[in-house]
Amino acid sequence: MRGAVLHAPGDVRVEERDDPKIIDPTDAIIRLSATCVCGSDLWDYRGINPVTAPTPMGHEYCGIVEEVGDAVTTIKPGQFVIGSFFASDNTCPHCRAGYQTSCAHREFVGAGGAQAEALRVPLADGTLVATPEVPDDDLLPSLLSASDVLGTGWYAAVAAEVRPGRTVAVVGDGAVGLLGVLSARQLGAERIIVFSRHESRQKLAHEFGATDIITERGDDGVARLKDLTQGVGADSVLECVGTPEAMTQALRATRPGGNVGFVGVPHGVEISGEELFYSHVGLRGGPAPVRRFLPELIDLIWQGEIDPGLVFDLTLPLDQAAEGYRAMDERRAVKTLLRP
């Protein structure tokens, strides 16, 4: 099969790879209908995470089940399925508590490289969720988003305790931040303030439900948010970047008694225990337990209540994956969808 492989920073190649095979009886093999480039892939692409060997890329996926192992009972060949970037059994204590990305038996699905024509998914019964039927092509972008970027934005909102009537701020105008806006609106936020300097992203943020845009960053951004909230700050803040500056901005934009949901993969982030202690700000985050939310998100998409696929502003054939990476790295695209 064809698949994207990162050989070195900035060097993505689509090349022949071995077809995935059933290894464990709980596995499934999926023929991918759509995949994409994640903002977190750029940490490797930019060399911020070390690249020591050719690495298959991608962890967001949806497609048709081709084969299942002997122990798989609920997932059937021919079904259209979506799954999380972490495989989970969905039965262990952590899964039952709603934290499937901390499953006692979790496996990183991305190790197989989802930017490809096919993918092996471990723990298929606990990881994959089938749609009511095989969807039309026009639903693919939105259903694909549920695999990670929508589920992660949704978790950021849930972790920040977004609920009806709240004032929400979103730090980060990438795909996760933008879908965090959509999630906050869906969860009933009254006001949604987005930090963004990019006109095209501001427009999409408004389309997803943003009420205010702040172009300033850092302390200036916090001061502007305080101006907009009569000096109070936001009830809920979604941190969707992962840098020290973004985390500091998120914490300082939150009112006492408010909450930060952080889903940006941290790089160099250090939090002052003393500042956090005296802020009275709650902090929750981590790898989004997408599997917890998949049934609800799929239903919202299927019923036409949300259209998260709008976040994909560049669609390319799989063989042009390298251009998809370049476009996101150079901020010419918010998120690239790849069609195998």
Structure description:
Strands 3, 5, 6, 9, 10, 17 and 18 form a 7-stranded mixed β-sheet that branches. The chain is an alpha/beta fold and 340 residues long. The protein is built from 12 helices and 18 strands. The protein has helices at residues 41-45, 93-96, 124-127, 140-145, 149-159, 175-186, 199-208, 218-228, 244-253, 273-279, 290-302, 321-329, and strands at residues 2-8, 11-16, 28-36, 55-56, 61-68, 80-83, 86-87, 107-108, 118-121, 128-130, 167-171, 191-195, 212-214, 234-239, 254-262, 282-285, 314-317, 336-339. The protein folds into 2 domains: 2-148 and 289-339, Quinone Oxidoreductase, Chain A, domain 1, CATH 3.90.180; 151-285, NAD(P)-binding Rossmann-like Domain (Rossmann fold, 3-Layer(aba) Sandwich). The relative contact order is 0.17. It is globular. Helix 8 runs parallel beside helix 9 (244-253). Helix content is 30%, strand content 26%.
Could you provide a short overview of the structure?
The chain has 340 residues and is an alpha/beta fold. It is 30% helix and 26% strand. The chain has 2 domains: 198 residues, Medium-chain alcohol dehydrogenases, catalytic domain (Quinone Oxidoreductase, Chain A, domain 1, Alpha-Beta Complex), CATH 3.90.180; 135 residues, NAD(P)-binding Rossmann-like Domain (Rossmann fold).
Instruction: Look at the structure and name the CATH superfamily of the largest domain.
Output: Medium-chain alcohol dehydrogenases, catalytic domain
String of helices and strands = EEEHEEEEHEEHEHHEHEHEHEHEHEHEHE
Mean pLDDT across the residues is: 97
| Count of discrete alpha- or pi-helical segments spanning 4 or more residues | 12
Based on DSSP secondary structure assignment, what is the total number of beta strands?
18
Q: In percent terms, what proportion of residues is strand?
A: 25-35%
Distance between the termini: 10 Å
Tally the structural domains. Answer: 2
Helix content: 25-40%
Query: The biggest beta sheet, please?
Result: 7 strands, mixed
CATH topology of the largest domain: Quinone Oxidoreductase, Chain A, domain 1
Low-confidence stretches: none
Give the structural class.
Answer: alpha/beta
CATH class division of the largest domain:
Alpha Beta
* Rg (C-alpha, Å): 19 Å
CATH architectural designation of the largest domain? Alpha-Beta Complex
Shape descriptor: globular
